[in-house]
Every structure is written in structure tokens, then in C-alpha cells.
User: Fold these one by one.
Assistant:
Number 1:
Amino acid sequence: MIVMKDIIREGHPTLRQKAEEVKLPLSAEDQKLGEELLEYVKNSQDDELAEKYDLRPGVGIAAPQINISKRIFALHFDEHSGENLSLVAVNPKIVSHSVEKAYLSGGEGCLSVDRSVPGYVPRYARITVKGYTLTGEEFKTRLKGLPAIAFQHELDHLNGIMFYDHINPNDPFQEVENASPIDLQAETVE
Ligand code: 4LI
Ligand code: NI
């Protein structure tokens, strides 16, 4: 199982690389990787397990964050985040997106970043995404809200991009044109 010591932090060169496409059908090893990434985000949202194994909570994690430069990530939202989505995305891509943007009003955090970097991170408000599941089936789905934000955050990891690359360095909280803020509820953030 993945724990915090397996997660590489900013400054590690792997986080700045473009990750490799995963070969299909998925090897047993790549399937296991996807399962472990999903297990991490699930465990990290379980109060007891998170405390027991000292896991920092997240809704997403990408393979490069455990120093495996492959195009695969996991997202998990349980009921109490107001969403209900759990997926492993292999070779994911955005096929279309809204003109409208969105951002988390509390800013973004990342399991590979041990400091708070304040500021708005502009993202597309709605995206249509494609990719492959762990069983090698193609999926296509539309996302909005926090899942859309998190998908873009994790996709960035596959391209060597960190969330703070998108923050305006001169004015981190500058009003984002054509954008709606997303407020994560206090109980989700706690
Ligand atoms: C406990 C149990 C305040 C601080 C507000 C916590 C279950 C930050 C916001 C969670 C922040 C869950 C989150 C992300 C932010 C902050 C990610 C807490 C987990 C809130 C998810 C990928 C950006 C995603 C809005 C440093 C690890 N997640 N908060 N950003 N939550 N969570 N991101 N921002 N300050 N990051 O993080 O998984 S997109 Cl679900
Ligand atoms: Ni991240």
C-alpha cells in the first residue's frame, strides 16, 4: 500500500517530466499500479486509516507522484464531498472544454507540495474526457465542479505541470475572467 514516504515532493525531477503512455492491454503491473493509486485516495479519506497510516487526504493522485512516469491517475470522491465518483484513468485526455473557467476559492493543494501556495488556479469549468479504465475499456465522460478541477490537476501531473504554475505571480488572487469560484465545504476540508 502507498504511504506518504512513497510520495515524491516538489523539486524531484520526475514531477517535471512528461509521463509515458501506458501500453494496452494493461500489464498486470500497470493494473496493480492503478489499484494502488485508487486505494491511496480512498484510504486517505477514511478518518481511521488516514490516522493509522498518517496519510494526507486527497481526492486525486497520479503515478508520477510515486516516481512512476506513466500516464495513469486515480480520483475518488465519496458521498460526503457531494460527489460520487471513483475512477482510474489510463492515457487520459480532454476532448473538449467549456469557455467558462472555475477555480477553488480556497486554492489548490497537492500531496507532493508540503507548503500552502495561495492563489487562484484557473481551470476549465466543464470538460469532456476520454481514457481507458483498468480493464482496458475506453471511457468518455463529462465532468464539472471539483471532479473537473481534480481531473485537470492530475492530468497536469502527467505533463510535468504543478498547480502553482497557473497562479499569477504578480497577483495570486486576481479575478479570473469568465470564472466561477468553487467552495469546498468546511466539513470536506476540515
Ligand atoms: C479530509 C477528508 C483549504 C485548503 C481549502 C479532507 C476527506 C486547501 C481548499 C479531504 C484547499 C477529504 C483539497 C485539493 C484543496 C489546501 C487534491 C480536503 C481532500 C480538501 C481534498 C486535487 C486540488 C486536490 C479548497 C493547501 C491533494 N484538494 N483541497 N485542493 N479533502 N482537498 N486538490 N485546496 N491547501 N489535493 O489544500 O486531492 S485538485 Cl476529500
Ligand atoms: Ni498534485
Number 2:
Amino acid sequence: MSITSPSFADEALDPSAHRPASVESKIVAVRAIPYAIPYSKPLHFASGSIDVADNVLVEVETEDGIVGFAEAPPRPYTYGETQESIVAAIDRLFAPAVVGLALSDREKVRVRLERTVGNPTAKSAIDMAMWDAIGKTFNTPVHKLLGGHADGLRVSHMLGFDPPASVAEQALVLRDELGVTSFKIKVGRRPIRLDVAVCQAVRDALGPEAEIYIDGNRGWSAAESAEALRMLADVGLSRVEELCPADDILSRRWLVAQCTVPFVADESVATPANVTREILSGAATAISIKTARTGFSDSLRVSHLAEGLGVEVVIGNQIDGHIGTICSLAFGASQASTSRHAAELSNYLDMADHLLTEPLRIADGEMRVLPGAGLGIEIDPEKLARYRTDN
Ligand code: MUC
Ligand code: MG
């Protein structure tokens, strides 16, 4: 009779064969995979437009064979990143800095990534893919690890530039088919009367119950913004976002001081330090949190900082694809402050396809976090092969 069973023999050959996955496991690879999926409905706004999701899928693999997923959306008009620059930053700078550290070394990873300035979406995707791998390692959903406040969020939809009747019709379809009752309307860099007509058309179509707010993406001056707010007084806006540039320091302060609803800082608050500066200087009175630019680790910092400063937060949309939406949803659901308002989660609906094995769902105006460990992201290998652009 043999004294070694086959499994014992396997273990002797490979000591890690039956070891449970551990957050002490080392990261063995960080992969940046560019892909391109067209939008069936392009989005136009004051600072740019988008007709293809030319995102970067980021994979963080550990020595346990666990793979965490996230994605980085290039937004050159907001952060200066392109799909090519994100891939290059990860391949040449970030992957070599991170490989060899453990999943539990998140703060060490952050310090190493911060040695390079900028590149917020590349850094954030690595952070979120690490959290996904940590969740899979603990067999726990990421939103529970981050705080576990809720299992879902109300959805707000972002409406881009189009004629008034068309924007109103889009809002009605979202309301009637998916139950969405909160809408952000893009304004700025075109005749104010046109933007006012769009907002009024949406209000007339939806009635008084719906939430409507506007985002200027820095497309007006402070004086134009003040004029627009006067003309929009009867529309009933719940808040306004980044109407004029934060760099117009005194005139922005002048505008925010006369604003009767929260003034949300979005692209001007890409870091926790920016949040402090903008709020304390009177350049904003609320904060948009986008996991695409602050990952989960810095989104926690931003949400706690905003709470300490006593200002409201909203989960914004970096025109996220499906994977980015899953990340925004997981983070938004995890905190009380980010669950309070409807979260901007639905613009993936305008994409022609996705990389997932299952489509995302919105029902009764809500999205539920995906079941399963980590972020619940399941990549369809055939779709990835079809849409990746690096082969
Ligand atoms: C938004 O809220 O501004 C448009 C530009 C950008 O950076 O994000 C989007 C949406
Ligand atoms: Mg915005």
C-alpha cells in the first residue's frame, strides 16, 4: 500500500495546490487590453463628444490565479488621457511598479502609482481591479467590503445635446420603459435659449415630480451661467454642475455665491485635495464622485472628506461603459452619502454591445449590485476577442 495518496503527491509537487486564496498573494500581472465598441447613440456635450467606447480593460492577476477586472475610459478633454496613453502608462510605468506587491498592499500600490502625476483613470482601474480580486479572494461582494450600506441605487440618466423635442422624447422613453425619474441635461457652449428650451421641454414632458439638473462642462462664462439660471428659474432644477471653469476663480465664486441650489464640482475635483480647495474657496457646494477617476480607495477618501466638510455628493458618470457602471454602482451602494441621490449609471444603454456574459438591468428606476464575489464582472471571452484592438 502506498503511503501517499495522489492528492498528497500533487501537493508535494505544488505547495500552493490546496492553499486557500489569500490577500497576501502577490500580484503577478497587470494587463491593459484596449477595446472598441461603438455607441448606437453618440453623446455630445460642451467639452466633447463620444461615439465609440475606446476603453481599456484592466486585469490584475494574483499568484492564486484570481483575476480582478475594471476599466479605464479615455477622456482627453477632461484628464488628457487617450486609450494609447492609458495602455502605455500601465504597461511601462504602473504594471512594473505593482507586480510583486500583495493584494493587501493597496496603500503601497497607491504611493507607487502617485510617483507618476496625472493618469487618473489608469490608476483608478488598477485600484478597482485589485478590490475585485480582494472580493473574490474573500468570497465577498466589493460593495460589502467598502461599506455595505445598500444593495442597489436609484438611477439618473444623462441627456446629451439634441433638439428639445428629441431630448424630451428620450427622457420619456427612459421613464416609461425603465422607471427612471432623474435626469441630468447637458448644457453650455451653444445659445442659452436653446438650452433653456431643452430643459423646459423635458420638464413639460415629465411633469413636476421628475428630478432635473444641468451640467455645463465649463461651457459658459460665469455671467452666462447667471443669465441662464435666471431664465431657468421656473424649470425647477435640483442642482447645477460645473457651469463655468473653476479656473475663472473670482467669477466662479461670484456665481456659486448667488446660486440657490447646490453647485456640483465635477472635473475640477479629480483628487481629494481638489475637493478641499474647491469647497473651501467657495467654488462649489457639492461634489460629483466618479470611480473612473478616483477608483474605490480615493472615492472613499472623497466621500469621507465631503462628509467632514458637510457637503453633499452624487455618483457621477464618466460616460462609463458596462464595467465602469458596475464599479460606480458597487461604490455608490456601499456608502450612505452616495446612496442618497439617484446615481448616474445608465449611459451604457447607448452602447451597441458590451463585453459581459449577461447584460446589465435597470428596473423600476433602480440597479441592483451584481451577485457574486468581487464586483461580479463576468467577461465573455468571445466578445473580448471580437472587440479588442491589440491583436
Ligand atoms: C459629466 O458629468 O461631465 C462628460 C465629460 C466628462 O468628463 O464626463 C462626462 C459627464
Ligand atoms: Mg459633469
